[in-house]
Amino acid sequence: MELPYVVLRELTLTDVEDRYKWCLDKEVIRYLNMPSKYPPFSRKETEDWIAACMNKTNGYHQKSITTKEGNHIGWVDLKNVDKLNKHAELGIAIGDKTYWGRGYGLSAMKEILRWGFDQLDLNKIWLRVEVDNVKAIASYKRIGYVEEGILRQDRLRDGEFVDRLRMSVLRSEFFDK
Ligand SMILES: CC(C)(COP(=O)(O)OP(=O)(O)OC[C@H]1O[C@@H](n2cnc3c(N)ncnc32)[C@H](O)[C@@H]1OP(=O)(O)O)[C@@H](O)C(=O)NCCC(=O)NCCS
What we know:
CATH class: Alpha Beta
Largest sheet: 7 strands, mixed
Structural class: alpha+beta
Bound molecules: coenzyme A
Mean pLDDT: 97
CATH architecture: 3-Layer(aba) Sandwich
């Protein structure tokens, strides 16, 4: 199946409103590593976060995902960059739910993986996903991620500790596909 075309562009302050709105949607944020309070972030906190990403002061390489028509639909990032061992952690969210299950997540991941391996010279790009986030795990497997192991009680979600699965894809596996 051909993947839909996406553009990964730099964040701008005009992204703040969409981001704030998406974080009000409990279905979107359920599996995202955010505070349990609701809303998880105020507008001001959202703006400060985007500004920190733009100024590269928080260690995140975060990009906005847009469709070929220019619709802003989510974000994707690489963080915890370990230059010595050449690996980093991936995070992704399609915030606009109308784009779920249409291949946009896969397409955005493919782009950031290519960028991370080429531009950051990484050897491995790993991620942590809650074990009951079935849809996300299926997407990761589809792109070539394999399981590394279970991180026990790794996230405190709504007052309950949940296990997370650690997965990764290696440069050699990604470019072999
Ligand atoms: C997890 C998430 C990023 C996945 O992104 P997505 O765009 O919804 O999913 P994908 O790109 O993998 O889409 C694949 C699905 O689209 C279908 N699809 C439709 N058209 C397609 C195409 N042209 N190419 C590929 N797949 C297509 C696939 O068959 C598959 O459907 P299925 O799951 O019913 O088998 C997204 O659902 C999300 O943001 N969720 C909330 C936040 C979250 O959980 N983030 C991850 C935290 S670890």
